[in-house]
Amino acid sequence: MENDFVKELGYFGFTMRLKRINDMLIQEGRKLYKELGVDIEPNWYVIFELLKVHQRLSITEIANRLLLAHPSVITITNKMIKAGYLESGTDKNDNRVRVLKLTEKARKKLPAYEKIWKSGEKGIARAFEDKDALGFLDLMEKTFGQNGFVKLTLDEYRKDQN
Fold first, then answer.
1. Which residue intervals define the domain HTH marR-type in the entry (predicted)?
2. Model pTM?
3. Which domain holds residue 1?
C-alpha cells in the first residue's frame, strides 16, 4: 500500500498494524457470514467452541481460559444471549456468579458453523503455507507475557535517561 504512514512508523506503528489486521479479518468475517446467510459475529466462534467442550462456564472462567479481559467477554456473550445462542443462569453454589451455556438453537446450528470455521482455518493456513505465522504469534505472546510492554519500554526509557 502506498503512502502508508503507519507502516512508515516501523515498530512505533506495531500495535496499529495489529489492530488493522484484526479489523480487516472481522470485517471480512462479517462479509462471509452475510454471504452465507449466517447470523453470527466473527469473534463468537471461540465461545461456541469453549462451551461445546465445557458445557457451562462463568464469565470469569471464560475470560481466564481465553486470556481476554472480563469486559470483552461480557460484550461478546451479551450479544450472543440477545441473538439466542447462549442462556444465562446462576451457579448452584454461588448465586452471584453468572453461568452461561449454549442454547438449543446454538447446538443445532453448531455443526454447520463448524464447517465454515474449518474452511476458514484452512484458508488462513493456505495464506501462510510457507510461513510460521502461528510460531510468530506464540513468540509475541511469550515475549510480551514474560517481559511485558511496560517493562520493555521502561528499560529503554531508563537507558535513554542515563
1. 2-145
2. 0.83
3. 1-37
- Please state, in angstroms and rounded to a whole number, the distance separating the CA atoms of residues 98 and 95: 8
Dihedral (Cα; 143, 149, 152, 158), 10-degree rounding = 180
Q: Where would I find the beta strands (DSSP E) of the chain?
A: 56-58, 86-90, 98-102
Find all residues with CB under 8 Å of 48, minimum gap 6, and list them: 85, 102, 106, 110, 113
When divided into structural domains, the chain yields a total of 3
Which residue type is seen at 1?
M
Q: Are 44 and 116 part of one and the same domain?
A: yes
No. of helices (H) and no. of strands (E), the chain:
8, 3
- Encode pLDDT of 103-137 as tens digits: 999 999 999 999 999 999 999 999 998 899 999 99
Examine the domain organization and report whether 86 and 56 are in the same domain.
yes
- The pLDDT tens digits of the residues spanning 56-93 come to 999 999 999 999 999 999 999 999 999 999 999 987 88
| Residues facing 86 on adjacent strands | 102
Give residues with Cβ within 8 angstroms of 55, minimum separation 6: 101, 102
